[in-house]
Amino acid sequence: DVWAAAACLYAMLTGCLPRNLQGQDPFLAVLQCDAVPICDRTSAIPKPLAKVIDLALIDNPEIYYKSAVDFKQALLNTIS
Q1: pLDDT beneath 50, residues of the chain
Q2: b/e string for 35-68 if b means 16 or more Cβ within 10 A?
Q3: pTM for this model (two decimals)
Q4: pLDDT given at position 23
Q5: How far is CA 79 from CA 2, 29, 34, 68, 73, in A?
Q6: Cα separation of 47 and 68, whole Å?
Q7: Domain coordinates of the chain in residue numbers?
């Protein structure tokens, strides 16, 4: 799914999981905590790429990227 792909990119680029899990029950953290914006973890990520990843990690009933194809296109747009 799109969220999982974005979380993998986030982890590869930052070395961290999207959510702060330190000292928390991981199941509660997933339900109660939002993802940390990727630029808060490292400033080395280009802003357009950071925005795409952050949008994909928003927990919201209205998912920003409706499909993997939409997410892929947004990622490709950051490098073209």
Answers
A1: none
A2: bbebbebeeebeeebbbbbbbbbeeeeebbbeee
A3: 0.88
A4: 83
A5: 19, 33, 27, 17, 10
A6: 21
A7: 2-79
